[in-house]
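Let us practice reading a record.
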Amino acid sequence: MSQADRLWINVTLFNGLNTAVEPMAVAVTNGLVTRVIPMSELPASEQVAGEVIDAGGRLLTPGLVDCHTHLVFGGNRAGEFEARLEGKSYEEIARAGGGIISTVRATRSASEDELFNAALPRLEALMAEGVTTVEIKSGYGLTVEHELKMLRVARRLGRERPVRVVTTLLGAHALPPEYKDDADGYIELVCNHMIPAAAAEGLADAVDVFCEGIAFSVEQCQRVYAVAKEHGLAIKGHTEQLSNLGGSAAAARAGALSVDHIEYLDEAGVKALAESGTVATLLPGAFYMLRETRVPPIELLRRYEVPMALATDANPGTSPIFSLRLMLNMACTLFRLTPQEALCGVTAHGARALGLQEQTGRIAPGLQADFCLWNTNNPAELAYSVGLPTLAQRVIAGKTH
């Protein structure tokens, strides 16, 4: 650990999976963690070429990972939110031109600069709460041109702000008006044109699908998965949100990194996740906004030791919430996760849901030095309190931002 660039001492350490029982020291060189040791084992002669940060017992966690967002979109649906509260049904709103199609229209009509400028404050809100890695999905363009436009904006966000952005092509999000009665035809467009174009431009890291009665069938999703894998892209799934179609098991068999929502997941599906190593991503923001009552099968996930990630699902319709810290509290209060499970969900398991478990999400030698230093010494307080404790330091690749 000699000649480390930066050395954090006297930290209460949550390493992404558990909390150390004694004060710790963490050394960083060239943006990577080089050593994590108890303070009692830190030699007095340690040489540090750069900076020593005395945490004074404060909590050090991995940088937070928001592994499921839809940050890039045009317009907003605040008027629909108000209309629903006044008694209008989702179907009535959709027939009047609202719902996802209203977001599609607004996104198609917006330029890349307009989409970037709208998405930037959403991203910065997440960053202000300690997010250092964020996944951003497309899915509101529903044409090759506009899906690629969304992905280019997401890539630009990652270039222009100190945050790791993972991009996911969600072309199979909904049927566009042009394919209203031709789901198979639209899936052919996704498979034969959209995925190859995104892969050719290097715009997508993964491909996602919405497997549901109101969206796409298991068989249609499997076709998308096969083509995504042919192009070297990871796969993910919106599954079992409103019904149990077996989409999670199908995604797991295809090698999906994660399946997300999963309120209607059954034991056979949980077992499939356990066998494949697929992460279960919980999205309490959508559960809350939609006033759902069917809770994900938390006890089954625990029993089969399926890793549970946690994300905002930040989007204009069903989770217009740009606070990952709030998700920690919601996961505990609505889904009965423990604070430690919730914190694992936005660190180690969130990184695993993106295939980044060997890069970030934990504080361990060899991983990138993505940290959050908090004004507390109690990890549970991050889930217990909304708005406090505050972030004292946000570090990406060993540098404070």
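A brief commentary: The longest helix spans residues 183-200.
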